[in-house]
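FAQ: What does the model actually see?

It sees only this:
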Amino acid sequence: MKITPVILSGGSGTRLWPISRSLNPKQFLDFFGEHSLFQKAALRVKNSEDFHEPIIVCNNEHRFTAAEELQKINITPKSIILEPVGRNTAPAIAIAALDVIASHVKKDDLILVMPSDHIIQDEEKFLAQVKKAAKAANDEYLVTFGIAPDKAETGYGYIKKDEELSKFKEIFIVEKFIEKPNKKTAEEFLKSGEYLWNSGIFMFKASTYLETLQKLQNDMFLRCCNAYNKAVRDLDFIRLFAEDFEKCLNISVDYAIMEKAEKVAVTPIDVGWSDVGSWQAIAEITKQDENKNSLIGDVSAVKTRNCYINSRSGLVATIGVENLIIISLKDTVLVANKNNAQDVKELFEMLKKQKRDECHSHTKVLRPWGSFETIDIADRFKVKRITVKPKSSLSLQMHNHRAEHWVVVKGTAHVTCGSKEFVMTEDESTYIPVGKKHRLENKGQIPLELIEVQTGGYLGEDDIIRFSDIYGR
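And it is asked to produce this:
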């Protein structure tokens, strides 16, 4: 019997700011190799005959990023479901379960719920444990995966296991779920050997989950059913009916279901798991030198110990420092003590209240047609580097407050400006006046690169009126 993976990708990863930002959160970033955390989650089950194509649940802002990430690794998802607002994991899983049931695959409705932003180093061992858990899930158990703790961690919730189920090896009844403990309590948990970290990974039959949800959270069940049944197809995406989904209780599956249901089980796993929840967690699983430093990018360190230094822009040089996290980007430098790694979220919230652009996006912003990068900005002007992918097009649009000057650096641009349509090649330029409808297209086989100089009294990204757009924005 096959399993449908459900990859939840609604997180914002604020504790990994400044690399993780709201438009490009941690699940879509590459911290440990050639693939992003999101891609690693999808690849985890790609080559196993035990799995169907995955269901992705993400928000509207990340839809094109998620689709492109899957395309790069040759995975065609069963569905990409778009949440109009974030409502935590309980409603998200309900929507995925409804999507499985709607496929009318009889007796084939097991789902494996995985966060998109976790690391599992021993994937073969993980999949072997999934097979064992499937037997209990087929027997109507709601199964969660508990991580065998190796330290007194205060940043995770815990699960206390009870007796082993007689029918299933290495599957235990859950006695209770415990909130994040203090240091003393965490040490007692570790010593007892009866507690596991709550990984946020689950397995159950879609029908079992929905029946339990209906019993314990009937209002959420009805609203999720309405949101899914009234959903519309938009390109490759399923858009939930916002009016119903927005009224769902904002609650995790742990609180809504797992802590209250009758048949709840846990299987311990020791697979090199990390939720990659802070820069300290990143540092712990990143390769270190003889001084316990992780040095990524252009870094020179003298008399430096136990530091994680990641430079993505310019040289970072250190002398006589220790226990620091240093992140250097084009627009931001973060310096923090490792012991305060969890406080990055607090800093992010402060900057968000100040409406800093650095919370929302990088200088390079991804779009479905390519990307743009802000090179320079001052009063009444902004300079961008724009890259348009082959066979891609920006929307037909207009600006009320800014004019634009385009200079082609590489490739061929097909330009619409008012009633005129024309072609520009390298070293050619054009001017787009304020209030003029225009479109930029790349009909060629290589990326189109150009420099855009904006001038005007207001240069915000929201000064766009779209008249037509192949991406449905």
